Amino acid sequence: MKRIGMLTSGGDCQALNVTMRGVAKGLYTLYGPEGVEIIGFIDGYKGLMYEDYRRLTPRDFAGLLTVGGTILGSSRTPFKLIREPDENGLDKVEAMKYTYRRLRLDCLVVLGGNGSQKTANLLSQEGLNVIGLPKTIDNDLWGTDTTFGFQSAIACATNVIDCIHTTASSHNRIFLVEVMGHKAGWLTLNAGMAGGADIILIPEIPYNIDAIVKKVEERSRRGHGFTILAVAEGAISRELAEMDKKDRKKALEKRMKNYPSVSYEIAAQITERTGKDVRVTVPGHMQRGGVPNAYDRVLSSRLGTQAALEISKGNYGNLIAIQNHKIVTVPLAEIAGKLKTVDPKGDIIEEARLLGISFGDE
Ligand code: F6P
């Protein structure tokens, strides 16, 4: 009997359940429903630390293709605190190892993004059999061309920009749509291009407010009364980017006192300089919710079933990734702690510029 632990960690996304379904279906096919026991830990690593889990059966994985969120629940367990004892003095790493061994697991499958895969790597180095699966709407995980959740989030953010387009043009307004993505601009770049944004601001290309205003005014001169900006939540001005870390932190704290987020600050600056009617839309966590799209369902099913295959081969310590359309394994040690960001000189940026999109930098 194979005994497999599974957990979903960090911010949720649309295709977590589909991925777990892929792992489970693959295992049930390879070992038969009687030949495998799947244990789901509740709320991410917390479930592994505090022995909060439930035994899952094939029935638990039925009907999940269209169900967003996670049937196991998720939580954030910051990697930087993982070596610190909890409020009751519990050694978190030892507690996780204890649960794994007490349940006589053959493998732990971790569905998670950057921070979660760092912990997965640590557990692997501590001697547990671990397999990582690349989850995040941010697409910022090293070692994989894409992550599950990303395409569904692009579809959601694009839909928001599409909706904003019609009202922006009716009222001749400037609209800023703030897109998630943490410190990476992938989601904003893709949704911005798909939604026909005129200006895209991403953390990898610090913006200059003068360049933004220039683009808005240029559009006005050409008879376009409205302008759409897709703004990454992590977008950063040139001035801030040039500061050292300490000064930047102070400046960001100051900004937070005046504006809820970067888009509101840029909106105020555009209003002040152009006198135009400016609005901000922040779809926020909507981008992580709802039904996974077709692309993610296929990707998640492929990644999940390949995880099952790796378990059957006893091949552990890897992230199951996609590279050049092929599912591959990449050592967790190689990807842990590395962030995949947009290359400001990459092809897609050049292509976007050729479409006339401004990145607020020139
Ligand atoms: O990592 C996914 C993500 O949605 C980021 O895009 C965003 O910055 C963050 O999580 C939001 O975190 P929380 O759900 O804790 O507010």
Summarize this entry quickly.
This protein has 2 domains: 2-149 and 292-335, Rossmann fold (3-Layer(aba) Sandwich), CATH 3.40.50.450; 153-288, Rossmann fold (3-Layer(aba) Sandwich), CATH 3.40.50.460. The chain has 13 helices and 11 strands. The chain has helices at residues 16-31, 45-49, 92-102, 114-125, 150-171, 186-194, 209-221, 238-242, 245-258, 262-274, 294-313, 332-335, 347-354; strands at 2-8, 36-41, 53-56, 107-112, 130-134, 174-179, 199-201, 227-232, 278-281, 318-323, 326-331.
Please tell me about this protein's structure.
- This protein is an alpha/beta fold and 362 residues long.
- The protein has two domains: 2-149 and 292-335, 3-Layer(aba) Sandwich (Rossmann fold), CATH 3.40.50; 153-288, Rossmann fold, CATH 3.40.50.
- It is 42% helix and 16% strand.
- It has 13 helices and eleven strands.
- The longest helix is centred in the middle third of the chain and has 22 residues, at 150-171.
- The protein is elongated, with a radius of gyration of 22 Å.
- The N and C termini lie far apart (62 Å).
- The mean pLDDT is 97.
- It binds 6-O-phosphono-beta-D-fructofuranose.
